Amino acid sequence: MERRFEVRLQELLDDAVLDSRVTRGMLDRLERFVEPLVDAFSSAEQQRHAREYMTGLCSDVKRKNAETIAYFHDQDRQAMQKFIGQVPWDHRPLIGELARQIGAELGEPDGVLVFDPSGFPKQGKESVGVARQWCGRLGKVDNCQVGIYMAYVSRREHALVDMRLYLNQEWAKDRRRRKKCGVPRETRFRTRHALALEMLAEHGSGLPHAWIAGDDEMGRSSAFRRDLRALEERYLLAVPSNTLVRDLEAQPPAYSGRGRRPQVPFTRADRWCAALPEDAWTTIEVRNGARGPLVVQAVKTRVLAKTDRRRNGPEETLVVLREWQDGGAIKHDYHLSNASPETPLGEFARVAKAEYRIEECLQRAKRDAGLAQYQVRNWLGWHHHQTLSLLATWFLTQESRRGKKIHRGTDRADGSHDHRLSVVSRTRLRFPDPHSPQQHAPPAAKRSRLRVPLEIT
Hints:
By secondary structure, this protein is of the alpha+beta class. It has helices spanning 3-15, 26-34, 44-57, 66-72, 77-85, 92-106, 169-173, 175-181, 192-203, 216-219, 222-230, 269-274, 345-355, 357-368, 379-408; strands spanning 112-121, 131-135, 140-153, 158-165, 211-214, 235-238, 244-247, 267-268, 282-289, 292-306, 312-324, 330-337, 449-451. A hairpin with a 2-residue loop joins strand 9 and strand 10 (292-306).
């Protein structure tokens, strides 16, 4: 075995050792974490159920819903189900406290706010908001609920901050189903982009950020990009490969001397990209990997993009990133930004990398805190479970950060990070009742090569 592989293997083996200090006192820390949150509940019984539900979400039970969490605490399921699905406690103060903590713990001036829809496959038609619609989890149109999520990403960590349940127009107009599922009367149809803007208005001032990012479902809407410009927010949003753009830096066709001067024609972003010479790309080194440096290649240009109504939009910057996948395939990602064209490619690449962090946040919440394991059909139950799941995920994220500091040594600064797997996520912990005692590298760039710390190091 080559020396570099031996070193990497030893690092992995060392990382697999769980220090006993990681889990010591975790229940006490969970109790302290929940303490400022229970003020949102009006009775001692609700406060007790909130503690028990949070404990269950942080435990190792396989299905983290009201029924199994009640059984986990050796209780009858009906009281816990009623607490989640029927008792009308307000979840917004809890989300506000979550956002405040994330801003205080992870906030950096150049942080990134990321928006992403996530689908929850469902059977039947009775659950609130369920309809045949695009489900990213399945990669197709299917029966599902869709939540719009907001995450905060900085060099310190990344975490989910807030969510909204999407109701399509059919659901929003169906009085019978709305009444049956307890949808508030004031709730009207809102597009996914409008829901994202609503969360931005609520939390944007408390979360230090310099960028807005999102996948192509968010970026394809020229109206959403227009609204962000009106709010003076700087964005880098993914767009589909068939987005029509006019390259403002390309040489226009020769003028014949008659009529209007010809302009560069609009073309699909992927076709524009395919016509580039190889030396147009800049190679950006992300970090060192076991098989050599991990890199992406990037290119940018000033463009006009067609709007949703097929009109010419304002000047934007088209940013394309490509990277080599296993098997030799090349993956291209297309983005539009209202940032200055002089913005370094390395900064664009950093923000584009941050966009994918929300997927990690969602996977973490679904895997560790039962985000998708609810068994509720009404409006209250969905929002109550989601809120407590986001809070449990944030607690586990803090425990993971604490475990990393223990592995590194307690003298390391809070802002330093590594790429080790979440210590808490790798540990199957059984929580007792808190009240009882106890890749292929691309060829070298022909124009330039930048080394940018895109990964948290």
